[in-house]
Amino acid sequence: MRKKEDAHMINEKIRAKEVRLVGDNVEPGVFPLATARKMAEEQELDLVVISDKAEPFVCRILDYKKFLYEQKKKQKELKAKQVKVVVKEIRFGPQTDDHDYEFKKKHAEKFLEEGAKLKTYVFFKGRSIVFKDQGEILLLKLAQDLEHIGKVDQLPKLEGKRMIMMMSPKKAIK
């Protein structure tokens, strides 16, 4: 396994009789290794193997440090473009009163507007499991109240002592 510094074979580390040169500042074609190295030295650049799977190796004459820098920069840009999914949770009881419901609904709206997914659940303690229909009504009411900013991914479903519903924002994050 190559070290990070030796990610590519360059200059003297290339072990081949002939190489195929490609790129902007050279005449494309197959050259003996010594000729290709000499061409790179004349331009004060490095001979870098781009593909060691091909026969003969595909090489390019370029500034190796600049090449590594640009590759690192591209990977950093790709990483920055990745979207991180955040899941926020809101917990209800089966007999949550109107004021608590409104308070938690405002939080749910805020989470969905920020672009986070929302996991809402009703937690049944002890014998309150007999009110599972009330829990389902509560979650469906929340889904209906938030349909302008979010869509339901998973309808209310009982898992153990919890009835869970998943929602995600309607519009994409900018």
Automatic annotation (TrEMBL):
Task: List this protein's GO terms for biological process.
Answer: ribosome disassembly
Q: Which Gene3D superfamilies match?
A: Translation initiation factor 3 (IF-3), C-terminal domain, Translation initiation factor 3 (IF-3), N-terminal domain
Domain of life per record: Bacteria
**Which Gene Ontology CC terms are recorded?**
cytosol; membrane
Q: Where is the Translation initiation factor 3 N-terminal domain?
A: 10-77
Query: Which PANTHER family does this entry report, sorted A to Z?
Result: TRANSLATION INITIATION FACTOR IF-3, TRANSLATION INITIATION FACTOR IF-3, MITOCHONDRIAL
Role, per record: IF-3 binds to the 30S ribosomal subunit and shifts the equilibrium between 70S ribosomes and their 50S and 30S subunits in favor of the free subunits, thus enhancing the availability of 30S subunits on which protein synthesis initiation begins.
The record's section on HAMAP family has: IF_3
> Can you tell me which family this protein belongs to?
Belongs to the IF-3 family.
The protein, known as = Translation initiation factor IF-3
